[in-house]
Design a protein that fits this description.
CATH class: Alpha Beta
CATH superfamily: Metal-dependent hydrolases
Number of helices: 8
Number of strands: 8
Structural class: alpha/beta
Oligomer: single chain
CATH architecture: Alpha-Beta Barrel
Length: 245
């Protein structure tokens, strides 16, 4: 779906439920000239992660899967080994408390990614410099990304969920300053778009989520937009290029 010479367009943050399935998302992405998506589990269980991996095996447009694993479990490596038998598994999402779990070592060693919003601390990026970390939902109250964090080269920012809590009544002034601050600090090669679909359904729409993102970043060059709408996600999640069906 992408034109030659540009990055594939990737929605870097969406979910599936038993009601909102890949067959509903794929036509939306296709209409908006997106090539695929990264599905991030919203249910923090191994069973849910296995289900998402099975969906990814059935649908080419699902380019990467971010599952969940208990990073505090000494046997977390066994779960990660199981996940890694699926070619689209890329990393885990995790909500942190005060302590850094030992499983972060396993992620770094396996060259996996970490999606984090709740409980993020700069110590994660500092202690594990080889671990690619993305801070989810930047621009919303769910995540704070002060410019000072940008000096960690392994830390990325995901602009996602902008309309989740106000699907049709979102106020650009509430998130645009934070979004533009993150873009200025991290640069387009470390910032990516995520829709957070279907969190705002049935009131909001995927296209409204994209519109909120587009308005938040303001006028940008074509090159910058290509990074934000796919290039960064492709690099961060090591997504292979190619057509999706």
């Amino acid at each position: 779906m992408s034109a030659p010479g540009v990055y594939p367009r990737i929605d870097s943050h969406q979910h599936f439920t038993r009601e909102y399935t890949p067959s509903l998302l794929y036509p939306i992405l296709k209409r908006n000239r997106f090539d695929g998506s990264v599905v991030v589990t919203s249910v923090l269980t191994v069973e849910e992660s296995r289900w998402l991996l099975s969906l990814a095996a059935q649908h080419d447009f699902i380019r990467a899967v971010v599952g969940w694993a208990d990073l505090a479990d000494p046997r977390v490596g066994d779960v990660l080994d199981e996940y890694q038998r699926h070619p689209k598994f890329r990393g885990v999402c995790y909500a942190f408390d005060d302590a850094l779990p030992p499983g972060l070592v396993a992620l770094e060693r396996r060259d996996l990614t970490l999606d984090v919003s709740a409980g993020f601390t700069p110590a994660i990026a500092e202690k594990y410099p080889g671990l690619r970390v993305v801070l989810d939902h930047v621009g919303t109250a769910r995540a704070i990304a002060p410019p000072s964090l940008a000096h960690h080269p392994n830390l990325f920012a995901k602009i996602s969920g902008l309309i989740t809590h106000a699907p049709t009544h979102w106020n650009l002034a509430e998130f645009q300053p934070a979004v533009q601050s993150a873009l200025a600090a991290f640069g387009p090669q470390r910032v990516m778009f995520g829709s957070d679909w279907p969190s705002y359904l049935p009131v909001g729409t995927w296209k409204e989520a994209l519109a909120a993102f587009t308005q938040a970043i303001g006028p940008q060059s074509l090159e910058t937009r290509e990074h934000l709408l796919g290039g960064t996600a492709r690099r961060f999640y090591r997504i292979e290029t190619g057509s999706a069906a």
